[in-house]
Amino acid sequence: MTQYVYFFGGGKADGNKDMKDLLGGKGSGLAEMTNAGLPVPPGFTVSTRACNLYMETGGRLPAEVDEQIEKALARLEQLMGKKLGDPADPLLVSVRSGAKFSMPGMMDTILNLGLNDRSVLGLKAKTGNGRFAKDSYRRFIQMYGNVVLGIDKDKFEHELAAIKKKYRAAADVDLDEKALDEVIARYKAVVQKETGRPFPQDPREQLRGARDAVFKSWGNPRAVTYRKLNDIPHDLGTAVNVQTMVFGNMGENSATGVGFTRNPSTGAKEFYGEFLQNAQGEDVVAGTRTPHPIAELQKVMPEAYKQLREITTRLERHYKDVQDFEFTIQENKLYMLQTRNGKRTGLAAIHIAVDFVEEGILTPREAVMKVEPQALDQLLHPIFEPKQRAKAETAAKGLPASPGAATGAVVFTADDAVAWSQKGKRVLLVRMETVPDDIHGMSVAQGILTATGGMTSHAAVVGRQMGKPSVVGCGALHIDAKGKKLKVGGQVVNEGDAISIDGSTGDVILKEMPTSPSEVLQVVAGKLKPEKSVLYQKFEKLLGWADEIRRLGIRANADIPRDAKVAFAFGARGIGLCRTEHMFFAQDRLPQVVRMILAAARGQRGLDLTRRLKDRLKEARGSQTAEIKKELAKVQKEYGKHVADYTGALKKLLPMQRADFAGLFKEMHGTPVTIRTLDPPLHEFLPKREELMVQVAVLRAKGGARNKAEVARKEKLLRAVEELHEFNPMLGHRGCRLGITYPEITRMQARAIFEAAVQVAKKGIPVKPEVMIPLVGHVEELKRQKQIVIEEATAVLGKDGSGVEYLVGTMIEVPRGAVTADEIAREAEFFSFGTNDLTQMGFGLSRDDAAKFLLYYQEHGILEKDPFVSLDAGGVGQLVEIGVQKGRKVKPDLKVGVCGEHGGDPSSIHFFHKVGLNYVSCSPYRVPIARLAAAQAQLEKPVGD
Ligand code: PEP
Ligand code: MG
What we know:
49% of the residues lie in helices and 16% in strands.
């Protein structure tokens, strides 16, 4: 026979703390507390198994569930010496939900069950307190009416308010028994009117109704949303806890309260909580009366306080975690109603974990497991002042692309962002989507908000890399960039109006909000001394323990020295990806980049033809020589200018790139620096076609000689843009395909890398360049690009290598690359998985367009998570595994990493650890998260020990 009901009471319980799946967190906690000899009011738990059956069968539970409940009830009645519904001395119970993971306030609770018109008199007689008895009954009708019978709360509140008005009562407690009788009569009339039936008087019917309502509440929208937000599976179900009521409202020697063994927002070691005398639990939660700080309990009920301190201290050591507890004191006798591991802020989590080690409660390994990696985020970014945030309304929600709180005046273009910030304004850049061209505006903005784009869109990737709070894909925004305004939910926001975004939640708030800076970040930036920040010291201590445990190396994706410096300070030991194209967007470079692009096709052709002819010339004899010379002159005439432009632009870019790379090498102090050759389609560096067309038309209409020249220049640009147009640029002329067709670009970049390496090495700073070729799908692509890199390396470093050791490797980001990784490994000295593109191509999901429907997919359970955020282990993950296995089959020691956005996502990090990657690379601000997640992965699944 399946056991559906688990009893607890009288010093022992059927369940224990390891039965969370079946009994829920609360039920297993009650069982555990009972077993530990704590003063827990007895009761029983109906298992999640019954809930799942209830959901599956549409409410038809097998008879054995009712039979087992009946038996448990009889046992409870015997233990308490009272009977449910007894008119003389009734047993009263509470009915509460309790899922495996705590979902605070998400499901409903019913108190005082067992009261009816007759038993309320029994309660009155037994307690000698008519007011208390009637108040309990009216509360029960209200809760039951709302939760089980589905009657709007306001209907009851309305009646209560009327009676309070009638008796001029300021608060509920001012109503006397007679007034409460009137409230009860009115409540019962509400039930009759709303349901067409009288309020149920049979306690067994009440119990069934309450049980079913709890089961049903698992599916209520609040609960569903909470689970989605917190990644809690929908098929767990909730248990139902039926427990003897104890009363904190039996007079001044009774009380009820909640507390934490440590301060859950700061982590300080202080007994933290509040209580109300002569009150029921819901009074504390509902906020109708102001509770007192728990320290005052010591004065009013010293014995109970002492016992509470003893018990909770014991509980903290027992569970090895901060406890969040509920208690009731009934006529000076303490009852523990609940205890569970307390939720805490990221800040508190760090303090608590480290303090617990210092107090000998946890080992460093255990402490490392206690902190949610994602929670570290809260320490690395500005946050809103919590009280103000609670008061502010969320106007819209987008994707939480880059964490942190930002507030500022709205601007709609990158140029405006720069102009406004030069005037000393704090701005928030709002765009439909950002493009590489916006980088200057992004870097001065407090935060970035876009209406479209997903978690690997430009704004998201760059926002994270810069550590800028960013919310992307906020579909509720209607942006009119030309008119410099936006509409959201019926409200208009004009340029200059203050708004705020929370990049950790995706919230958009239409007003200015105070923020406070991150202490850890101030230390990292050198603005605060480490010894002045206890938080920083503990942060580093915890991460130091993590470093000792983890097997995965941690690198950062950084393009510029400033980001590299942050990354190193956060503990990155290497750069896993430098996207060289990001440097091309700097204002002093873009003109040269455009010049290079405009001349590239013809320039490269001219170079190739010239080389070929010159080779022939070497072998030529007699009349052939003259012939070839003639041809050379022709080529020179036709292509000379393009060749000059192409090579001229590259020559100008070379020293700029060299300086970029030298900066990175210096900041990374001899750890490996992976530099990727040019990746994006070239049109990204040019203005948009539509914009150019408008500009040409406007200039033409104006006329004039100067404008004529400008028209010619713009038209040339427009032709180039049209020539470069691709229907599917993400699958087009990008990645190594660029370097293969325009080898001079790869050559220039390789030369810049090696010249920078020599420059820095000469200063005595060790360097480890790793040149990475993107988007390789066929070994031949890598082979050819590698040859160019080696030629340049040899030319710069000489035969002896000048003391610079370098590697040439490839990204694995095209599915074909992954499945032919054995062939590719013959040429590659390392692999780095580009899981952004691998997800895009493996799934066939455009990384720039998928946000539109990915949310729908998640809401409707097609996908659990956004695959651009958390690696799709079952699908794309297989490509990674195949790539690793095939690569290492050929080269057993092949170094393999990942540099897609997944490198900073804790659950993906667990996967990368499991499949044997050597390192993960992520944005600088995610480095601490990755360090901790990598340690947790090792503790959960040790490799190499
Ligand atoms: C990737 O594709 O995962 C990657 C790191 O490259 P990018 O995001 O620049 O395409
Ligand atoms: Mg890529």
